[in-house]
Write a structure and sequence with these properties.
- By secondary structure, the chain is α+β, with helices and mostly antiparallel strands.
- It has a single domain (16-107), classed as Ribosomal protein S10 (Alpha-Beta Plaits, 2-Layer Sandwich), CATH 3.30.70.600.
- 31% of the residues lie in helices and 33% in strands.
- The chain starts with 6 loop residues before the first helix and ends in a 6-residue tail after the last strand.
- It has a four-stranded antiparallel β-sheet, with helices on one face.
Length: 114
């Protein structure tokens, strides 16, 4: 079984990331305020890092108790530098404030050409 790298290993790896994916759970009643928090922080990052693109998505299914799974996506035309990955991870580490459990971070890179 492949072991996932914790976010601090990703942050310190020195590798450029193709795209960064961050997912977590949000309680349904706090979804509106959590959305505003994340979108404001994403807009701030985009002002600090021209060219950074971000998205906020929600899984199509919602748990019976209203819990939602959200995904943040980050990419840049030339990839994400280690410094940019650090900025994203550190500025968003504690958000949204109503989050249930930890933020899970994954890095995906383009496939090598054949």
């Amino acid at each position: 079984m492949r072991r996932r790298r914790p976010w601090h290993d990703l942050r310190m790896s020195g590798l450029s990331a193709g795209e960064l994916y961050v997912y977590y759970k949000v309680p349904g009643p706090q979804a509106g305020s959590a959305r505003h928090e994340i979108q404001a922080l994403q807009a701030s990052l985009q002002r600090q890092w021209p060219g950074l693109a971000s998205r906020l998505l929600r899984r199509d299914d919602i748990a019976a108790d209203g819990t939602q799974t959200w995904m943040e996506l980050y990419r840049a035309p030339l990839g994400l530098s280690p410094l940019l990955v650090e900025a994203i991870l550190s500025q968003l580490a504690d958000w949204p404030s109503a989050r249930i459990g930890p933020r899970h971070t994954e890095r995906f890179v383009p496939l090598d050409p054949d």
